Amino acid sequence: MLLLPPLAARKEEKKGNINLLALVPWPDDRPHADWDAGPDLLAGARVAIKEINNSTDILPDYRLNLIESAHEACGLPGAIQFSAAKTDAITQLSVLVLVPYHDFNPNSGWSNGIELLPAARIAAREINNRADILPGYNLSLVEASSDACGCITAPIGLSNFVRYAVNNKMSSQVIAVTGLVCSTVTEAVSPIAGRLEVDIIQLSLSISPLLRDTGKYKRLWHLLPSSTIFVNTTISLIKHFSWNKITLLYNEANVLTESTTDAFIDILSNTTIQHEIIGIRSSRIFIHKALDLIEAESNRIIFASISSLDDLSHLMCEAFSRGLIWPCYAWIFQLLTYNEVLLQEQSFCTQGSLIKALNMSLILNYRLDNNNDNDVLISGRTYGQFRKEYLDELQKIKLEDFVQDYLSGGYVISDNGNLYSNPIEPKFKMASKKSPEYRTLREHFHDICDALSQVPNSISPLANDLCAASIISTTTRTAVTAIRGVAPYDLASQLISAVHVTVEYSPNKFYTLVEKLNVHGFNELAQMLYEKCEASGGRAAPSASGEDVGETPPTSNNTIDFNHPSLQTGPSFRDLSNLVAARIPNKWRDLGLQLGLRVSELDGIYDRRNRVPSHCYMDVFELWEKGAMPYTWVTLLQGLSSPFVNETGLAIEISQEIIRRNN
């Protein structure tokens, strides 16, 4: 006997929707507008839809919906016009601008990153002021901070923006993302392009050959030539001078240099040119080994694709000391400028030696701008007129007080060019307003590091004084004073980063830092910091009572005593699992970077551990224990407190728990 399912079961709610647009040839007074039987067709369609929805074996788990629209039977223009009239007009278009703004975070951006923004603002205003570019539309910019090519490849600003766009159904408004300078950032954005929730066309400044994959990057527009243009130029050089034996030297674990070299090898494989391939890392051992191989192979033509200025400086200083320079050896570099290298603070050799090492080397680069004042731009202005407007806009940006909140989600430019807070901002704003001392230190972080790196001998004495004043830990002091072969700027950056963590919760320590800078001869810098802080709402001099200023009271409950003996010990894996991994399961990668792991190591963990956070954490902690960074609670707590991980509250709780156990 056949048992039919209950009626309720047959009419259960469908899980998905399929929409059909029914163009019905309704009769009206237009010629060829309809068929007399047009309404009969609609009646049949409605009956069919009901039958399908009531059946459980035709489209299970789906509901079929009929969207009815009238049109003429054989007249396409009328149908389009009618459908367009029923569609809500879209008048607002948005472009997400990823600004590689330079803050205190490692690899956060470029020192001139903010200088990319004025041109975008001017262009948006120009488009909105003209009636022949986007008539009927208003273009706005959504500005978000991102790292340029750093380790954190999914920028916070971008993540916040996409989350906001999806939640607010902005799929018809977001037309482009610009500022994807490196392929690492572009790859983080590419999965978003084409999604139903947010339909993004990518505009990329990246020149990585990886982005030539039009199958993977269907919505990518290149605004710069691919780096394969350097490969083609190099091949032309080789053929012109009839070179038949060369060396390819490149940075490993770098998407740009690796992919550029791969493109080079693809072309060389079809020639008779002999080539030695050498990959280097940021290590004295790797650089020495690379030069050993160059000497052993007697390859005197070296094409170098080096992304790190420190690595290049180290490499050429060592080449100079060995005599591996012109006229015996020829070096050809890509993507660098002569001044960039020379402006680096030299810790590997004197600047004079570096100049001799680079003498007669060839640097391949391309300029896409036009500095001819007589040329008229599409806006009708000369380059000189545009340059003046650009500099005025840049000056206005530098005076705007929004930098400290950049990572919270971005800002929007209205049609009249005024800056106002993005609707994203309240949702993603930092938990509390930072003190004037904190903001001043953050804003002038690189000014301090630059000043210290100009006087390298001052860094160790300053670190000792700051440690004695309980501003930095003994671990940080040791790392800054004992390590050799590290560029002065990097040492200064490590030192001031540690100070920054302390000042966030003890703003009064800012004044101690300024006092110590004054003691060590940085009088102008100290005075400037005092004045900037006072102008931002801070006080002009340290308080005699020693009380902290700012919104966070200086109690023992919200600070970490990095010098406490209990925190100088190594953590157990059980504690790491219970106190860290279980509390912040999704931040193993961010924390791993702060514990000294390389991106390639973290990628290997991700693949090897099948993305299980607890397993990934265990590998991170094992590599940290075997690595160069001190395996102590202090290192871990500083990593948790860093802006990348942003878990200062958890760090405080853990420090209190460890100290309590040992009391």
TrEMBL record:
It is found in: Membrane. The keyword Glycoprotein applies. GO terms for cellular component: G protein-coupled receptor heterodimeric complex. Residues 117-346 form the Receptor ligand binding region domain. One of its GO terms (molecular function) is G protein-coupled GABA receptor activity. It comes from the Eukaryota. The keyword Glycoprotein applies. GO terms for biological process: gamma-aminobutyric acid signaling pathway. Residues 539-564 are annotated as: Disordered. InterPro entries: ANF_lig-bd_rcpt, DEATH-like_dom_sf, GPCR3_GABA-B, Peripla_BP_I. Pfam families: ANF_receptor. Residues 553-564 have a biased composition (Polar residues). Keywords: G-protein coupled receptor, Glycoprotein, Membrane, Receptor, Transducer, Transmembrane, Transmembrane helix. This is Receptor ligand binding region domain-containing protein.
